TrEMBL record:
The lineage of its organism: Bacteria, Pseudomonadati, Campylobacterota, Epsilonproteobacteria, Campylobacterales. This is Phosphate-binding protein. Coiled coil: none annotated. One of its GO terms (cellular component) is ATP-binding cassette (ABC) transporter complex. The complex is composed of two ATP-binding proteins (PstB), two transmembrane proteins (PstC and PstA) and a solute-binding protein (PstS). The gene is pstS. GO terms for molecular function: phosphate ion binding.
Length: 335
């Protein structure tokens, strides 16, 4: 076979590899945004033919995989600070905003509202309140026939941005929690049983009468799990409604030069839901071609996926934030 023919075959093979790479994007990380990422991926493939394969493995796994460069993008509900981004040579931007709820399984109540004060939530997760009819819970739930049933805690067993945001809130509002447990993607839970991913914790709650656990609101809504009414930073009772989640998101001050680092939990406002979080995308600085393909997907999501995000209980990013992200990606040769 001639050298010319060999060269032609090699170029053809390389072109085929490039075509395959361009037709598939691999991402991994947070389970918090997985429902909307799956929907966006389905719609994007239908329109462009490009497959977005997203693995819901938890924020800790997503950070590890993008730092190891084994995926095209990582996803984390814990934003990385500028120093960590610089050390790992990563870009970061938010994709969508959501909320973490306390979902529970009490069929006896037949859907009646349960209010849980900050002090009660802290005590439940510390293991010092162990029954649903505890006087401290009953005090805020007049007229609700709380059952004499043991409380079972369901928590995340994997490295989780949902855990990081939930424990950030607990750590900020609970002195005892701060002193004994603290915050992190993983913590030493005083009581309870662990499940992997939002999916695992959701299943544990569904299967365990008397249980309570922290999950993204989209998982609770999809599985018809009731969500506790919580207290705002001002002490008023608030539900995880779109309006109350948006109230927290409205306080965000996104800055591209800081990798859009922002924590939305415990934001002020009497109508502000207390456990709100943005979820973030991580890209390797040096992979310009791959980053541009990932950027196309999220541009599609920002422009055409807002309605689908709202249907699932997420809050799309406001237009000025999207414009700031687009400028940030262009500046960093990722668009």
């Amino acid at each position: 076979m001639s050298m010319k023919m060999n060269r032609m075959l090699l170029l053809s093979a390389l072109a085929a590899v490039s075509l395959v790479a361009a037709d598939k994007i691999n991402g991994a990380g947070a389970s918090f945004p997985a429902p909307i990422y799956y929907k966006w991926a389905h719609d994007y493939q239908a329109q462009t033919g490009v497959q977005v394969n997203y693995q819901s493995i938890g924020s800790g796994g997503g950070i590890k995989q993008i730092e190891a460069r084994t995926v095209d993008f990582g996803a984390s509900d814990e934003p990385l600070e500028a120093k960590r981004l610089g050390e790992s040579k990563l870009l970061q931007f938010p994709a969508v905003v959501g909320a973490i709820c306390l979902a529970y399984n009490l069929p006896e109540l037949e859907g009646k509202e349960v209010k849980l004060s900050n002090a009660v939530v802290e005590a439940i997760f510390l293991g010092t309140i162990t029954k649903w009819n505890d006087p401290k819970i009953a005090a805020d739930n007049a007229g609700v026939a709380l059952p004499d049933k043991a409380i079972t805690i369901a928590y995340r067993s994997d490295g989780s941005g949902t855990t990081w945001n939930f424990t950030y809130w607990l750590d900020k509002m609970g002195k005892t929690w701060h002193e004994k447990v603290g915050l992190g993607k993983t913590v030493q839970w005083p009581v309870g049983i662990g499940g992997k991913g939002n999916e695992g914790v959701t299943n544990m709650i569904k299967q365990t009468p008397g249980s309570i656990g922290y999950i993204e609101t989209a998982y609770a809504a999809k599985n018809n799990l009731p969500m506790a009414t919580l207290q705002s930073a001002e002490g008023t009772w608030v539900k995880a409604t779109t309006e109350n989640i948006m109230a927290a998101a409205a306080n965000a001050k996104w800055k591209g030069e800081e990798g859009f680092y922002q924590i939305l939990a415990s934001q002020p406002g009497k109508n502000t839901y207390p456990i709100v979080a943005a979820t973030f995308i991580l890209l390797p600085q040096e992979k310009a071609a791959e980053n541009k393909e990932v950027s196309k997907f999220f541009t599609f999501a920002f422009e055409k996926g807002a309605a689908e995000a709202e249907k699932l209980g997420y809050i799309p990013l406001p237009k000025p934030t999207v414009e700031a992200i687009e400028a940030y990606l262009k500046t960093n040769n990722a668009k």
